[in-house]
Amino acid sequence: MMIEHKARKRFGQNFLQDTRIINDIVYAVRPQPDDVVIEIGPGLAAITQPLSQKLNRLHVCEIDRDIIQYLKKQSFADKLIIHEGDVLQFDFRSISGSKKIVGNLPYNISTPLLFKLSQVADEVIDMHFMLQKEVVERMTAVPKTNDYGRLSVMLQYFFEMESLIDVPPESFTPAPKVDSAVVRMIPVLGRMGIAEDFKHFENLVKQAFHQRRKTLRNNLKDIASDEDLQAVGIQPQQRAEEIAPECYVQLSNYLIKKK
Q1: Which CATH class is domain 9-187?
Q2: Helix 150-158 vs helix 198-208: angle between axes, to the nearest 10 degrees?
Q3: Domain 198-258, CATH 3.40.640.10 — does that match?
Q4: How confident is the model over 33-67, as pLDDT tens digits?
Q5: For residue 16, what are the CA distances in angstroms to 47, 66, 219, 245?
Q6: 142 in Cβ contact with 117 (< 8 Å)
Q7: Three-state SS for 158?
Q8: Burial class (CB in 10 A: 0-12, 13-18, 19+), 97
């Protein structure tokens, strides 16, 4: 199945080759024949092939033209709907239906892509991604830990997340210099309240974590007073990593109502 294809650094390519990990990912996705499944970065089809065996059709997003030509020559090519181009520019809403999204995400675009995908959470059943392990740890982190930050809050607003599988470097060709992990993301909008003005909430969280060592009184001085913080149970001398995600939603909504 492998071909002579040199992994391209600018695309963040590392090709999965560990059969056990591949099987575990497909099992976690649990694809049914009529499911709408989108694979991001199919690469040399390590996950694409077993997924295609269980699906009537499979959408794949790929930027590398050589890989696209390779996919078109495979025995399962008739099941593939190939979307060529930068996935950060792809309109996921252009594919109708509730979707399952899966992929080995390039490390260099993982964070902006996760933020982009959160905006289509209302059309997603679940997502399973291979990511740098330290990114997964940040995504799933709880308050009062070093990994907890803006990424934790913003993704936990949309998703319940669980780290499923640890993946060592030798599972890839070429082997990356970091460990990876597979994370499951299930949309549960409203689990910590609904932000009445999402842009305001997003900006509030960004500002709160702008300088982690500073107190919220300092980081939010242009947005919220001590009284505003105390009104939702936050002490002004606390730092951003001490505050649960739902408290940021409550603070944002409180400030919006005050306007």
Answers
A1: alpha beta
A2: 150
A3: no
A4: 999 999 999 989 999 999 999 999 999 999 999 99
A5: 8, 17, 42, 34
A6: no
A7: helix
A8: exposed
